[in-house]
Amino acid sequence: MKSKKVVVGIIAAILVAVCMGGAFLATQNDDYYTQIDNRWVQEIALHGAMNYKYTLAAYDKNGNEKDVVFETSRILTDDAFLCLKVNFIRGVVTWAEVKYEELPAKVQQYYNQ
After folding, report:
1. pTM, to two decimals
2. CA–CA distance from 59 to each of 1, 21, 27, 41, 78 (Å)?
3. Which terminal Cβ of the chain has fewer Cβ within 10 Å, N or C?
């Protein structure tokens, strides 16, 4: 009887640790930077407020490239720079327009200004 309680306690502790690890990963966002190129926007079937999808190359603060896909409710300003918050699990969770001067130096080298 006592060993059964110990096993149940261990299983419960493992489940709690897995859930906490998943919650931690779900909240970890990395910054990536991109420049809008409206040649790569696609109109998609409206769901929620989103009806456009972008697929663009983006760079982290060290200049590492990653293709990102995100949806918007409108066509964005061509050539605008964005800072994208990218989650390992959920993808792009938010974005904000930034100025060229706000881009990390290693990212600026990819864009002419």
Report:
1. 0.75
2. 56, 26, 20, 19, 18
3. N
